[in-house]
Amino acid sequence: MTIGKFFNAFHQRDSIALKKVCSENLVLHSISESEKESNFSIQKASDFYKSIATIPLSMKFEEKILSFKVQIDGAMAHVWTPYEFYVNDKLSHSGVNSFQLYKENEVWKVVYILDTRRK
């Protein structure tokens, strides 16, 4: 499954493998939430790949996916994945990932990621 490959590459800090499961026009948005406010941010795909490839090897991180909900209509799919993100075995934040995928030549590619982040 494309999302499984995405997270395997993510946890291995493998930006080349990440690019293989994502569209070259990948769009990334995040909503950071606190008790007082929420902030919407945009990340360039190139900055995302660079940030993954440059995570120090001394840092242990894991995004634990709590469940998957998949919806498919033809060549379009939506995958909803609640998660908890741990850094050095300590909970950093939690939220939900919303992945939009497009099926191109029988291969699913991630075209859009929107996530929420709560402390």
From TrEMBL:
Name recorded for this polypeptide: Lumazine-binding protein
Organism: Flavobacterium lacus
InterPro entries linked: NTF2-like_dom_sf (IPR032710)
Domain of life: Bacteria
